[in-house]
Amino acid sequence: MLPDILPAEVFAFLLVFARIGAIITLIPALGERTIPTNIRLVLALVLALVVAQLVRSVLPELPGSPLRMFLLVSGEIVIGLFIGAAARFIMTGLHVAGSVIAFQAGLSVAQAFNPTEGIQSAVMANFFNTTGVMLIFATDLHLLLIGAMHDSYTLFPAGGVPPAADFAELVTNMMTQSFSLGIHMAAPFMVYGTLFYMGVGILGRLMPQVQVFFVAMPLQIILAFLILMFILSSSFLWFIGRFEDNMSAFIL
After folding, report:
1. What is the DSSP secondary-structure string of 10-63?
2. pTM
3. How far apart are CA 158 and CA 52, in angstroms?
């Protein structure tokens, strides 16, 4: 019996690994670029082994042709990339908020490599992304991500055709919500920046002899950090709530 059962079980595991591995490559917290590749690979293998035992009854049987097998694996990879990208879009809101705050605080020229986004960005954006990842682990929301991996087999059954129209609509909505989240988190600084530049402009017109740049630049940074001190906790509470709400769409 073993030669008959083993190929089907191996195929079921590899089918689950295709989806879980694709999710791990993009998902925040568990799939960050700062985590070594071999660690992420081991994590994907362990999660695939566990999830495969839970969803074995809903997985398709071993196909009889290589083309059918290729289509099944490709569909699982597409679904996994979609789920991972949907979670990653939420983190983009933190990058938007950090970039806007850095501009309004006069710190936009302070650039550094952002390991979360994989691009060069403002130091404030790096701080927001890193803090967001830390809070995901601190609030156990990474368990919500793992739950989404399991429940995705109910939302998107293995072997079915990925719903491209639904995927496009959901991704568009999440991108919109992510940008909205970043702007809302940075809204106090946008108001502050507008008022500050107006005040500096009026001061420059009233007292042309004053070196406005040398007076305004340190004051702009100090006031920005004071505002950040008061709103940081509430801003990240808002982010955590939005992250939980968006990822709950994949939980039954």
Report:
1. HHHHHHHHHHHHHHHHH-TTTT-TTS-HHHHHHHHHHHHHHHHHHSGGGSPPPP
2. 0.84
3. 11
Beta bridge partners of 111: 122
What was the pLDDT predicted at 236? 92
Instruction: Give the whole-number percent of the chain exceeding pLDDT 90.
Output: 19
Residue 114 has pLDDT above 70, yes or no: no
How many whole angstroms from its chain centre is CA 216? Answer: 35
HSE-up of 2 (CA within 13 Å, CB side)? 0
Number of neighbours of residue 5 by Cβ within 10 angstroms: 9
| Local confidence band at 5 (pLDDT 50, 70, 90 cut-offs) | low
What separation in angstroms does the CA of 147 have from each of 107, 140, 178?
A: 39, 11, 22
Helix (H, G, I), strand (E, B) or coil at 83: helix
What is the rounded distance in angstroms from the CA atom of residue 166 to the CA atom of residue 173?
11
Q: Are 126 and 114 in contact (CB under 8 A)?
A: yes
Question: Does pLDDT of 117 surpass 70?
Answer: no
Residue ranges covered by each domain of the chain: 2-250
Does the pLDDT of residue 64 top 70, yes or no?
A: yes
Tokens for 29, please give them. 């917290």
Helix (H) or strand (E) holding 221: helix 212-247
